[in-house]
Design brief:
Two copies of one chain form a homodimer.
Chain A: E1 7-8, E2 16-19, E3 28-29, E4 34-35, E5 45-47, E6 56-59, E7 62-67, E8 76-77, E9 82-83, E10 108-113, E11 119-120, E12 124-129, H1 135-143, E13 164-168, H2 180-193, E14 198-205, H3 213-219, E15 228-232, H4 233-236, H5 239-260, E16 264-267, E17 272-277, H6 288-301, E18 305-308, H7 311-314, H8 318-322, H9 328-347, H10 358-362, H11 368-376, E19 384-388, E20 398-402, H12 408-417, E21 422-427, E22 440-444, H13 447-452, E23 459-460, H14 462-466, H15 471-486, H16 492-496
Parallel strand pairs in A: 12-13, 12-14, 14-15, 17-18, 17-21, 18-20, 19-20, 21-22, 22-23
Antiparallel strand pairs in A: 1-2, 2-5, 3-4, 5-8, 6-7, 7-9, 10-11, 10-16
Helix pairs in contact in A: 1-5, 2-12, 6-15
Bound molecules: calcium ion (5 copies).
Keywords (chains A, B): Lyase
Family (chains A, B): Belongs to the UxaA family.
Protein name (chains A, B): Altronate dehydratase family protein
Chain lengths: 512, 512
C-alpha cells in the first residue's frame, strides 16, 4: 500500500504546492519546510515561500498570475491573494518542435471500414435537423427503432451490427444571421452527416427556415452522397407523413448498414481522439490531464490524431503551443484565434480571464491561466501540426488544435463534427457526458469522485494522486482502453444511452 | 359558393394590392384599372399606380418601404424595386388609447384552480434542468412515466387528471456570462417552475455548472415552494441514483397532482394567450393575423390577457403601438426595447431590417416593416397596458407586449415562462409547433396549406381569403376554440406529443 503525499509538488521552480487532502492549519508540509497557516482544502495551493505584492506565482514552472497582496510561506493561495497580471508572451514559433518518435509496429483495433476507406468506431443511422422546428418529428423517426424496455421488442434485432438510430436535434437554424453563424451551423451538421460513424443519414427540415436544405447540402458537400436523404415537413405534408417517410428510409438502408458494420483489424492511425475536460478540479492538472497527455503521445506515436480544443481554456498558455508548432503559419493560426476570442468576448460583454466556473474555483483553480496550463496537459508533448476552425474536417495526423468554446457539449460537438471517432473526457467534479455517434470515455481525476460516480466513470486516474501508478503507467492504461472502446467495447455513457441531448452546435450571433 | 377576388385590397390609400392566386402577365385586375405586367405569385404585391424612385409604397395604409427604382402600374413589387427607407416616426404616446368595451357577463372555461388561486389549462409534472449536462438524466426521469405504445402499459393510468411528466432540456447553463445571460436563463426556468400548468417540478443540475441551483432558487423565488425538488447528479452520486430519486419524487406527488387536476368553471379573465406567428406568408397579414386580432380583442373584452412579442418583427411599426399605450411610461418601454435591439443586432453583426426569412420572401413579404405591420395585427385594437422583459411574470390584464426574438421556439418559451396558458400560432408555410406545458393552437393562413398539413393545423383562417367568412366571424370562431382548448380539448400538436424539444430559452452573450 503506497503512502500518498500530503501535498504534491509539480515543478522545482514552483512557489506553491498542491494539497492532496484537507490540510488543517498548523500542519507541517513534509519536504517543503513550511507549516499551513490556514485550512487548505484538497486541490488548493499552499505557498512554500514568501511572495511580494505584484510578484509572479508559478505552477508547472509557469506563471499562473501575480500576488495581489504579500503572501507568506504556508498561506492559502487563491482568489483573495492571486490575480491575473500582464504575462509576458514570447511565441518563439517552432523553437521546440522535434521529430515524432513513431512506433515501428503500430497497434491495431477492430474498426469498421467504410467504402471510402475511412474507419468508424460505431455504426449508427442518424436523423439530423436543419432547425428546431423539425426536432420532434426527427425524434419520432428515431423512436420507431428504440428497443422496448418492457417487452424487450427490438426493431433492430435483425441488424446486430447497427448501434442504433439517433436523432440529433438543436435549438437553432432560423431567426439567425445568414453569415458566419449559419456557415458554422452548416459545417457542424455537414460534419456529422459525413461522420464515418454514421452508415446513413436523414437531413430533416421544416421548409421555411433560414438554414435551407439546398444550401446546407451544397456548402456541406452532401449533394449526391449515397445514404443521405433530405426531407422537409412542409413539402411532405405534415407530421405523420414525414415520420412515415423517415421510417421508410431507415428500413431501406438497415440491411446495408448492418452489412457494412462488420469489424476488421485496422491500424491505430485511424484513431481520431477528441480531448475534453469538464467539471475540472485541482486534480485535473495533476492526474487525469497529464495521464491523458501520455496517452495522447502514444496515439500520435502510433500514427493517429488527437484534437485539443476549448480555446478560452488555452488562452494565456498559447505561447507554449506556438513553440511546438511545425511551422510559423500553424502557430500564427493559434495566435489569431486568441485575438478573435478577445474581440468576441469583449463584444459580448465578457472577459477571457474570468472563466473558471464556481466548480473550478471551489476545486482550487484561481486563474484561467492556471486552468489553461492544466487543460493543455491533455495534449501531451508532440508537435502541433495543424489548427482548425470549429467543426472543420480534421485530415492531419498528429496533434492538432480545433477552435471551440470551453463548454463541454459545444466543444465536443465541434470535435465530433471534425471527425473525432473517440472522445476522452477528464472530469474532477464528475460528468455524465456522452456524444453519439462517438463513444465518450470518462476519466476521473480523483478516487473519491470515481467511487461516488462509478456508474458513470470509465477510468480512475486518481491512482496517480494515490501513489498507485505513475502518469506514464496511467497513460498506457488509457491508450489500451481507447483501443478496446474503438473496437466496440461500450463506455459507461453508452451503456446508459447518453449522447443525443448533448449534441450542441456552437451558436454565434444574435437570435433574431 | 362565394367567388373569391383575384387580388385583395387592404386599404383605400394603398398603392399595391395583394395577389390572391397566381396571376399571369397580361391579366387585368378587376376594380383596379391595371393589368399585371409580369407573373405575380400568390401573396405578392401588384402596383396599382405609378411610384417614382424614392416614393413611399403603402400597404394597410402604412408605409412598408420606398421604391428603389420607378415602379409602373401593374408591376410586381418586391425586393427588386422596394427597399427600406427612412420612415418618419411620431410616437404620439397614448393619443389613441380608449376605454375597453368589457363584456358584461364574461365567458367561462373549465380550468384547474391551484391552491394560490391561479388557473391552469393543463396539469403536468415537469423536470427542468439547470444545464445541458443534466439533460439526459432529466429525460430518463420523464421516460419512466411514458405510456408504452406497444403494450399499452401506462404508468399514469391511475392518475387521469395528470397530463404527463415532461423533461424540458436545453443546450446552455454553463460556459456562459454570469450577468444578464444567466439572469435571463434563470427568469425563464423560474417562470416554468412557477407556471400554473405544472403541479410539481424537479430542478435537476449536474453540480458544477455556472447556473447553480441555489442562485436559481433564490433569484427565481423558488425557495420553500411546495412541490419543487432540487437535485444534482454529483451530490446524488451519478446517473442511476439520480434517476431513481427523480422517479421517487414524481411518485410521491402524483396523487396530489391528480387530485388538484379536477376542472371547474372559471371566468375567461384567467386566459393568458401568447400570440405567435412563424413561417409567415403573404396571407398572414390578410387572414390569420387579423382574425387572431379579432379574437385577441374578445379575450381582452372578457377580462383576459394577450401577449404580443417578437420584437424584431414589430420593429418599424412600434409607433402604432405607442399611440395605443395607456401611459407614456409604457410606450417608452417599447421604444427602449427597439433601441436595445438596434444596438444588440449591430453588436452581433446583423441588421434589423433583413429579417424576412427565405420563406417569408418567397411568400411575398419584402421588408421587415411590411412583415411587422402584418404581425402586429394579431394583437387586435385594444390599449397596450404593459411591456415586459423576456420571461418576466405577466400580471397585467389586457393587451401586453413581451420582448422576445422573432424565432418561434425562443419567443414562445419566453411567453410561456411569463405565464401564458394558451399559445395561438399563425402560420402560412406550415409549422408543427407545440410547447408543453401550454397547449398551442395552430392557425393556417390559407386553405391549400391547411389541407396539405391538416394533421398539424387546428384552425383554417384561409376561409377569409376564400370569401367564406369575415375576419370578425373567424375571430369569434378562434375565441370559441380557445375556450374549448383551455377546458382540456387537445390541440393537434398535443395529440402527436409535441412540446418538449421546442423548449428554447433565449441564449444571449458568448458561449465560452
Ligand atoms: Ca443578411
Ligand atoms: Ca482580461
Ligand atoms: Ca470543456
Ligand atoms: Ca464574471
Ligand atoms: Ca415567430
Amino acid at each position: 500500500m503506497p503512502t500518498p503525499p500530503l501535498a504534491i509538488r509539480l515543478h522545482p521552480a514552483d512557489g506553491v504546492v498542491i494539497a492532496r487532502t484537507d490540510i488543517l492549519a498548523g500542519t507541517p508540509i513534509p519536504g517543503e519546510n513550511v507549516t499551513a497557516l490556514a485550512r487548505i482544502p484538497p486541490g488548493h495551493k499552499i505557498a512554500t515561500r514568501a511572495h511580494a505584492e505584484g510578484e509572479p506565482v508559478r505552477r508547472y514552472g509557469q506563471i499562473i498570475g501575480v500576488a495581489t497582496r504579500p503572501i507568506a510561506p504556508g498561506e492559502h493561495v487563491h482568489s483573495h491573494n492571486l490575480g491575473m497580471g500582464d504575462h509576458a508572451k514570447d511565441y518563439a514559433f517552432c523553437s521546440e518542435a522535434k521529430p515524432t518518435d513513431y512506433v515501428a509496429t503500430p497497434a491495431t483495433f477492430q474498426g469498421i471500414v467504410r467504402p471510402d476507406g475511412r474507419v468508424a468506431t460505431r455504426n449508427y443511422i442518424g436523423v439530423l435537423t436543419t432547425v428546431n422546428c423539425s426536432a420532434t418529428v426527427a425524434q419520432y423517426v428515431a423512436d420507431a427503432f428504440r428497443r422496448n424496455p418492457f417487452t424487450g421488442h427490438d426493431p433492430l434485432a435483425d441488424f446486430p451490427n447497427v448501434d442504433g438510430v439517433v436523432a440529433l436535434t438543436h435549438k437553432t437554424g432560423c431567426g439567425m444571421n445568414d453569415g458566419e453563424p449559419l456557415r458554422l451551423l452548416r459545417r457542424t451538421l455537414a460534419g456529422y452527416a459525413r461522420h464515418p460513424n454514421f452508415a446513413a443519414i436523414i437531413v430533416l427540415g421544416l421548409g421555411c427556415e433560414v438554414n435551407q436544405i439546398p444550401g446546407l447540402m451544397e456548402e456541406g458537400k452532401l449533394e449526391g452522397r449515397p445514404r443521405v436523404r433530405a426531407l422537409t415537413i412542409q413539402a411532405t405534408g405534415g407530421t405523420p407523413k414525414t415520420v412515415a417517410k423517415g421510417v421508410e428510409f431507415v428500413r431501406e438502408v438497415l440491411a446495408e448498414a448492418n452489412a457494412q458494420g462488420v469489424r476488421t483489424s485496422v491500424p491505430a492511425s485511424h484513431l481520431c481522439v477528441a480531448l475534453q475536460c469538464g467539471g475540472s478540479d485541482g486534480y485535473s492538472g495533476i492526474s487525469a490531464n497529464p495521464a491523458l497527455g501520455a496517452a495522447s503521445d502514444l496515439v500520435v506515436r502510433h500514427g493517429g490524431t488527437v484534437i485539443l480544443s476549448e480555446t478560452p481554456e488555452t488562452y494565456g498558455a498559447e505561447h507554449l503551443l506556438t513553440r511546438r508548432a511545425v511551422s510559423e503559419a500553424v502557430g500564427r493560426k493559434l495566435v489569431d484565434l486568441m485575438d478573435w476570442w478577445e474581440e468576441y468576448t469583449r463584444r459580448n460583454g465578457g472577459e477571457l480571464d474570468d472563466n473558471p466556473s464556481p466548480g473550478n474555483k471551489a476545486g482550487g483553480l484561481t486563474t484561467i491561466l492556471e486552468k489553461s496550463l492544466g487543460a493543455m496537459a491533455k495534449a501531451g508533448t508532440t508537435n502541433l501540426v495543424e489548427v482548425y476552425r470549429y467543426a472543420e474536417p480534421v485530415t492531419a495526423k498528429g496533434f492538432v488544435f480545433m477552435d471551440t468554446p470551453g463548454y463541454d457539449p459545444v466543444a465536443a460537438t465541434g470535435q465530433v463534427a471534425g471527425g473525432a471517432n473517440i472522445v476522452c473526457f477528464t472530469t474532477g467534479r464528475g460528468s455524465v457526458y456522452g456524444c453519439k455517434p462517438a463513444p465518450s470515455i470518462k476519466l476521473a481525476t480523483n478516487t473519491p469522485m470515481f467511487r461516488r460516480m462509478e456508474d458513470d466513470m470509465d477510468i480512475n486516474c486518481g491512482t496517480v494522486i494515490d501513489g498507485d501508478e505513475s502518469v506514464a503507467e496511467c497513460g498506457q492504461r488509457i491508450f489500451d482502453h481507447i483501443l478496446r472502446v474503438a473496437s466496440g467495447e461500450r463506455t459507461k455513457s453508452e451503456q446508459w444511452g447518453f449522447g443525443a441531448e448533448e449534441f450542441a452546435p456552437w451558436v454565434q450571433g444574435a437570435t433574431m
